[in-house]
Amino acid sequence: MAQDLINDQTAGIERLLEIMHRLRDPKTGCPWDIEQTFQTIAPYTIEEAYEVADAIERQDWSELEGELGDLLLQSVYHTSIGEEAGHFSFQSVVTNISDKMVARHPHVFGDESRDKSADQQTRDWEAIKATERAGKAQKGTLDGIAMNLPALLRALKLQKRAARVGFDWPDTSHVLDKIVEEAGELVEARDTMDHEDMVDEMGDLLFVMANLARHLNIDPEEALRRTNAKFTRRFGAIEDALAKHGKRPEDSDLQEMDALWDEVKAREKATKG
Length: 273
Fold this sequence. Notes:
Blueprint: H1 2-7, H2 13-23, H3 31-35, H4 38-57, H5 61-84, H6 90-104, H7 106-109, H8 118-135, H9 151-163, H10 172-192, H11 195-215, H12 220-243, H13 254-272
Helix pairs in contact: 2-5, 4-5, 9-11, 10-11, 12-13
């Protein structure tokens, strides 16, 4: 019986699929769950993916277990909606990704040699993906890169794809020159142009900064996450230092807080040393 399956903690994915089926039942399900669509659930899917990444960053393995479950639920949610609409099912999604992984790893599941460098495997992977895109009528070099990726990540993917067909600077010196150029254009926009022009020039500068990260083999998203974490940590230390004197940041000024920032920075460097 369905209720037995729902209560069976050993039933694995089948239990979760039945739970979702019950939640979405038009007559007996949860009113909120029944109302959800691909579009309303998509923001939660993105949020859960970031929470998985956050747990990994903090190496909180217990929390990661829970976050991975939350992310799995998103896949179950979308496949349930898809099945109701007649688009696909959970099993067809599993079959699709299984077939894809087998096809993209001929050196593991086929007759090709495993004696390849990581770079060669990456090139082979991209060649296979290009063939798949051609089969989907995605003819352009940049076709198939998701529009809703974080902007910095999408910039990196666009640049990598363009670089594979030769549209790339040969070394970092050209990228650095372009950064200087784009920074100058941003200053000019600030002094002589309207807000929309400044937005465009800021975008150009961020795009070329992502390009520099790529040339240095740095993930710009990871780099910025680390800096965000560093800023949060150091500003928290400033607040703690002020609190010892009965003050809050709004009771201080930039000169005092900047001095405290330098102290925190110096302590961190000394600890690393």
